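Annex B.
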Amino acid sequence: MISFKQLTYALAAAETLHFKKAADKCHVSQSALSTALSQLEEQLGVQIFERDNKKVLVTPIGQEVLARAAEIVAQVHSLQNLSSSLKEPLSFPLSVGVIPTIAPYLLPKMFPTLNKRFPNAELRIVEEQSHVLVEKVRKGELDTAILALPYECEGLLTMEFWQEDFFWVTLKGDKYSQQKEITSDEMMHSNLMLLKEGHCLKDHILDACKLSEEETEHGFGATSLNTLIQMVLGKLGTTLIPEMALDQLISQNKELSAVHLKEPGPHRRIAFIIRPNFTRLSSVEALKDVCKDALAGNGA
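LysR substrate-binding domain-containing protein: predicted C-alpha coordinates.
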Protein backbone atom coordinates (compact mmCIF):
# COMPACT_ATOMS: atom_id res chain seq x y z
CA MET A 1 0.00 0.00 0.00
CA ILE A 2 1.42 3.36 -1.05
CA SER A 3 1.74 5.69 1.94
CA PHE A 4 1.42 9.44 2.33
CA LYS A 5 4.94 9.40 3.81
CA GLN A 6 6.38 7.86 0.65
CA LEU A 7 4.75 10.54 -1.52
CA THR A 8 6.08 13.28 0.73
CA TYR A 9 9.61 11.85 0.56
CA ALA A 10 9.43 11.58 -3.23
CA LEU A 11 8.34 15.20 -3.60
CA ALA A 12 11.15 16.34 -1.31
CA ALA A 13 13.70 14.37 -3.35
CA ALA A 14 12.37 15.88 -6.59
CA GLU A 15 12.58 19.37 -5.11
CA THR A 16 16.14 19.05 -3.80
CA LEU A 17 17.51 16.49 -6.32
CA HIS A 18 19.62 15.31 -3.41
CA PHE A 19 18.72 12.44 -1.08
CA LYS A 20 20.64 13.82 1.91
CA LYS A 21 18.99 17.24 1.62
CA ALA A 22 15.60 15.61 1.10
CA ALA A 23 16.10 13.48 4.21
CA ASP A 24 17.00 16.55 6.24
CA LYS A 25 13.94 18.36 4.91
CA CYS A 26 11.74 15.43 6.02
CA HIS A 27 13.57 15.02 9.36
CA VAL A 28 14.51 11.39 8.69
CA SER A 29 17.75 9.54 8.00
CA GLN A 30 18.98 9.25 4.42
CA SER A 31 18.74 5.46 4.56
CA ALA A 32 15.10 5.63 5.73
CA LEU A 33 14.21 7.99 2.87
CA SER A 34 16.09 5.91 0.30
CA THR A 35 14.39 2.70 1.49
CA ALA A 36 10.93 4.31 1.35
CA LEU A 37 11.52 5.56 -2.22
CA SER A 38 12.78 2.19 -3.37
CA GLN A 39 9.64 0.57 -1.92
CA LEU A 40 7.46 3.16 -3.70
CA GLU A 41 9.11 2.42 -7.03
CA GLU A 42 8.70 -1.31 -6.43
CA GLN A 43 5.02 -0.93 -5.56
CA LEU A 44 4.35 1.19 -8.66
CA GLY A 45 6.55 -0.92 -10.93
CA VAL A 46 8.28 2.14 -12.39
CA GLN A 47 11.54 3.97 -11.78
CA ILE A 48 10.93 7.51 -10.53
CA PHE A 49 14.55 8.58 -9.97
CA GLU A 50 17.90 8.03 -11.69
CA ARG A 51 20.57 7.75 -9.04
CA ASP A 52 24.35 7.90 -9.02
CA ASN A 53 26.94 9.05 -6.53
CA LYS A 54 26.83 12.66 -7.69
CA LYS A 55 23.25 13.51 -8.59
CA VAL A 56 19.57 12.52 -8.60
CA LEU A 57 17.39 12.96 -11.70
CA VAL A 58 13.68 12.48 -12.20
CA THR A 59 12.72 10.10 -15.02
CA PRO A 60 10.06 11.10 -17.57
CA ILE A 61 7.54 8.68 -16.05
CA GLY A 62 8.69 9.90 -12.65
CA GLN A 63 7.58 13.41 -13.62
CA GLU A 64 4.06 12.08 -14.21
CA VAL A 65 4.06 10.12 -10.95
CA LEU A 66 5.27 13.14 -8.97
CA ALA A 67 2.65 15.42 -10.54
CA ARG A 68 -0.06 13.03 -9.33
CA ALA A 69 1.68 12.74 -5.95
CA ALA A 70 1.67 16.54 -5.56
CA GLU A 71 -2.08 16.61 -6.21
CA ILE A 72 -2.69 13.91 -3.61
CA VAL A 73 -0.53 15.61 -0.97
CA ALA A 74 -2.28 18.93 -1.63
CA GLN A 75 -5.70 17.28 -1.21
CA VAL A 76 -4.63 15.67 2.07
CA HIS A 77 -3.39 19.02 3.37
CA SER A 78 -6.66 20.61 2.29
CA LEU A 79 -8.58 17.93 4.18
CA GLN A 80 -6.45 18.54 7.27
CA ASN A 81 -7.05 22.30 7.04
CA LEU A 82 -10.78 21.73 6.68
CA SER A 83 -10.82 19.52 9.75
CA SER A 84 -8.91 22.15 11.73
CA SER A 85 -11.17 24.98 10.60
CA LEU A 86 -14.30 23.09 11.62
CA LYS A 87 -12.95 22.88 15.15
CA GLU A 88 -13.17 26.68 15.39
CA PRO A 89 -16.48 27.96 16.83
CA LEU A 90 -19.09 29.04 14.26
CA SER A 91 -16.86 28.05 11.32
CA PHE A 92 -19.65 25.91 9.85
CA PRO A 93 -23.31 26.91 9.17
CA LEU A 94 -25.55 26.57 12.24
CA SER A 95 -29.35 26.27 12.21
CA VAL A 96 -30.95 28.04 15.16
CA GLY A 97 -34.60 28.08 16.19
CA VAL A 98 -35.98 31.04 18.17
CA ILE A 99 -39.43 31.52 19.70
CA PRO A 100 -41.49 34.58 18.61
CA THR A 101 -41.32 36.29 22.02
CA ILE A 102 -37.52 36.30 21.88
CA ALA A 103 -36.51 36.57 18.19
CA PRO A 104 -37.57 40.20 17.45
CA TYR A 105 -35.87 41.51 20.58
CA LEU A 106 -32.72 39.39 20.82
CA LEU A 107 -31.67 39.13 17.16
CA PRO A 108 -31.24 42.90 16.46
CA LYS A 109 -28.91 43.08 19.47
CA MET A 110 -27.16 39.80 18.74
CA PHE A 111 -26.22 40.18 15.07
CA PRO A 112 -23.93 43.25 15.41
CA THR A 113 -21.96 41.48 18.15
CA LEU A 114 -21.87 38.24 16.17
CA ASN A 115 -20.59 40.00 13.05
CA LYS A 116 -17.81 41.67 15.03
CA ARG A 117 -16.58 38.51 16.72
CA PHE A 118 -17.32 35.94 14.03
CA PRO A 119 -17.57 37.76 10.67
CA ASN A 120 -17.72 34.49 8.73
CA ALA A 121 -20.46 32.90 10.84
CA GLU A 122 -23.50 31.58 8.95
CA LEU A 123 -26.76 31.20 10.87
CA ARG A 124 -30.06 29.86 9.56
CA ILE A 125 -32.80 31.28 11.77
CA VAL A 126 -36.16 29.52 12.17
CA GLU A 127 -38.89 31.27 14.18
CA GLU A 128 -41.46 28.91 15.66
CA GLN A 129 -43.30 28.14 18.89
CA SER A 130 -41.50 26.17 21.59
CA HIS A 131 -43.11 22.77 20.99
CA VAL A 132 -42.19 22.88 17.29
CA LEU A 133 -38.58 23.86 17.98
CA VAL A 134 -38.11 21.17 20.63
CA GLU A 135 -39.26 18.51 18.19
CA LYS A 136 -37.05 19.86 15.39
CA VAL A 137 -33.98 19.80 17.63
CA ARG A 138 -34.81 16.25 18.77
CA LYS A 139 -35.12 15.05 15.16
CA GLY A 140 -31.92 16.79 14.07
CA GLU A 141 -33.77 19.21 11.79
CA LEU A 142 -32.26 22.07 13.82
CA ASP A 143 -28.85 22.23 15.47
CA THR A 144 -30.10 24.22 18.45
CA ALA A 145 -32.92 26.51 19.60
CA ILE A 146 -33.43 29.41 21.99
CA LEU A 147 -36.36 28.94 24.36
CA ALA A 148 -37.76 30.51 27.51
CA LEU A 149 -37.68 28.28 30.58
CA PRO A 150 -39.27 26.59 32.35
CA TYR A 151 -40.35 24.37 29.45
CA GLU A 152 -40.41 20.60 29.03
CA CYS A 153 -37.29 19.58 27.07
CA GLU A 154 -36.98 15.91 28.00
CA GLY A 155 -33.99 14.24 26.38
CA LEU A 156 -32.29 17.55 25.52
CA LEU A 157 -29.67 19.62 27.31
CA THR A 158 -30.35 23.24 28.29
CA MET A 159 -27.69 25.96 28.37
CA GLU A 160 -29.10 28.95 30.23
CA PHE A 161 -27.63 32.39 29.51
CA TRP A 162 -30.17 35.04 30.57
CA GLN A 163 -32.81 35.77 33.20
CA GLU A 164 -35.40 38.51 33.14
CA ASP A 165 -38.61 39.81 34.68
CA PHE A 166 -41.90 40.99 33.21
CA PHE A 167 -43.18 44.56 32.97
CA TRP A 168 -46.80 45.64 33.06
CA VAL A 169 -47.69 47.98 30.19
CA THR A 170 -50.50 50.50 30.43
CA LEU A 171 -51.34 54.00 29.22
CA LYS A 172 -49.73 56.87 31.08
CA GLY A 173 -52.19 58.41 33.51
CA ASP A 174 -53.96 55.12 34.23
CA LYS A 175 -54.14 53.86 37.78
CA TYR A 176 -50.79 52.44 38.98
CA SER A 177 -48.97 53.78 35.87
CA GLN A 178 -46.77 56.07 37.99
CA GLN A 179 -45.63 53.28 40.30
CA LYS A 180 -42.22 51.62 39.98
CA GLU A 181 -43.68 48.19 40.75
CA ILE A 182 -47.05 46.49 40.65
CA THR A 183 -48.41 43.28 42.15
CA SER A 184 -50.56 40.73 40.39
CA ASP A 185 -53.45 41.62 42.70
CA GLU A 186 -53.28 45.26 41.58
CA MET A 187 -53.21 44.20 37.91
CA MET A 188 -56.37 42.14 38.24
CA HIS A 189 -58.49 45.26 37.84
CA SER A 190 -56.81 46.38 34.60
CA ASN A 191 -58.27 44.02 31.95
CA LEU A 192 -54.99 42.12 31.46
CA MET A 193 -54.52 40.86 27.88
CA LEU A 194 -52.12 38.04 27.02
CA LEU A 195 -51.04 36.06 23.96
CA LYS A 196 -53.26 33.26 22.73
CA GLU A 197 -52.88 29.65 23.83
CA GLY A 198 -49.72 27.93 22.64
CA HIS A 199 -47.27 30.70 23.48
CA CYS A 200 -45.11 29.79 26.46
CA LEU A 201 -44.92 33.46 27.49
CA LYS A 202 -48.58 33.24 28.48
CA ASP A 203 -47.87 30.24 30.71
CA HIS A 204 -44.88 31.97 32.28
CA ILE A 205 -46.97 35.06 33.05
CA LEU A 206 -49.76 32.99 34.59
CA ASP A 207 -47.19 31.17 36.74
CA ALA A 208 -45.44 34.37 37.84
CA CYS A 209 -48.73 36.06 38.75
CA LYS A 210 -50.37 32.93 40.18
CA LEU A 211 -53.31 33.45 37.85
CA SER A 212 -55.65 30.99 36.13
CA GLU A 213 -56.27 31.12 32.40
CA GLU A 214 -59.91 31.99 33.02
CA GLU A 215 -58.92 35.16 34.85
CA THR A 216 -57.20 36.54 31.75
CA GLU A 217 -59.60 35.24 29.08
CA HIS A 218 -61.20 38.23 27.34
CA GLY A 219 -61.86 36.78 23.89
CA PHE A 220 -58.70 38.24 22.36
CA GLY A 221 -56.45 36.12 20.14
CA ALA A 222 -53.19 38.08 19.77
CA THR A 223 -50.20 36.16 18.42
CA SER A 224 -47.53 38.84 18.91
CA LEU A 225 -46.47 41.28 21.59
CA ASN A 226 -46.61 44.11 19.08
CA THR A 227 -50.32 43.40 18.55
CA LEU A 228 -50.91 43.49 22.31
CA ILE A 229 -49.15 46.86 22.51
CA GLN A 230 -51.41 48.22 19.78
CA MET A 231 -54.41 46.98 21.74
CA VAL A 232 -53.14 48.80 24.83
CA LEU A 233 -52.75 51.96 22.76
CA GLY A 234 -56.32 51.40 21.58
CA LYS A 235 -57.47 51.48 25.23
CA LEU A 236 -58.63 47.86 25.20
CA GLY A 237 -56.67 46.89 28.32
CA THR A 238 -53.15 46.29 29.63
CA THR A 239 -50.52 43.62 29.07
CA LEU A 240 -47.21 42.18 30.30
CA ILE A 241 -44.02 42.01 28.27
CA PRO A 242 -40.49 40.64 28.96
CA GLU A 243 -37.71 43.05 29.83
CA MET A 244 -35.80 42.46 26.57
CA ALA A 245 -38.78 43.86 24.61
CA LEU A 246 -38.92 47.21 26.43
CA ASP A 247 -36.58 49.05 24.04
CA GLN A 248 -38.60 48.22 20.94
CA LEU A 249 -42.13 48.23 22.28
CA ILE A 250 -42.14 51.00 24.87
CA SER A 251 -39.39 53.52 24.14
CA GLN A 252 -41.02 54.47 20.82
CA ASN A 253 -44.47 54.96 22.41
CA LYS A 254 -44.47 57.95 24.74
CA GLU A 255 -48.10 57.26 25.64
CA LEU A 256 -47.16 54.04 27.41
CA SER A 257 -45.82 53.33 30.86
CA ALA A 258 -43.93 50.17 31.88
CA VAL A 259 -44.06 49.05 35.52
CA HIS A 260 -41.97 46.21 36.95
CA LEU A 261 -43.98 43.17 38.07
CA LYS A 262 -43.44 42.76 41.81
CA GLU A 263 -43.60 38.98 42.01
CA PRO A 264 -40.81 36.50 42.80
CA GLY A 265 -38.40 36.22 39.88
CA PRO A 266 -36.76 35.69 37.57
CA HIS A 267 -40.02 35.46 35.67
CA ARG A 268 -38.45 33.60 32.77
CA ARG A 269 -35.01 32.14 31.93
CA ILE A 270 -33.56 32.08 28.41
CA ALA A 271 -31.56 29.07 27.24
CA PHE A 272 -30.22 27.17 24.25
CA ILE A 273 -31.34 23.57 23.87
CA ILE A 274 -29.18 20.91 22.17
CA ARG A 275 -29.06 17.16 21.71
CA PRO A 276 -26.82 15.43 24.29
CA ASN A 277 -24.34 14.21 21.67
CA PHE A 278 -24.30 17.33 19.48
CA THR A 279 -20.79 17.55 17.98
CA ARG A 280 -20.47 21.32 17.62
CA LEU A 281 -20.95 22.31 21.23
CA SER A 282 -18.22 24.98 20.96
CA SER A 283 -20.30 26.83 18.34
CA VAL A 284 -23.38 26.90 20.56
CA GLU A 285 -21.29 28.01 23.54
CA ALA A 286 -19.78 30.82 21.45
CA LEU A 287 -23.23 31.92 20.27
CA LYS A 288 -24.51 31.74 23.85
CA ASP A 289 -21.76 34.12 24.97
CA VAL A 290 -22.57 36.48 22.07
CA CYS A 291 -26.25 36.57 23.06
CA LYS A 292 -25.50 37.10 26.73
CA ASP A 293 -23.09 39.97 26.07
CA ALA A 294 -25.43 41.57 23.53
CA LEU A 295 -28.32 41.59 26.00
CA ALA A 296 -26.05 42.94 28.73
CA GLY A 297 -24.84 45.73 26.45
CA ASN A 298 -21.30 44.33 26.23
CA GLY A 299 -21.34 43.64 22.52
CA ALA A 300 -17.93 45.03 21.65
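The mean pLDDT is 90. The first helix runs from residue 4 to 16. Further annotation is deferred to the next reporting cycle.
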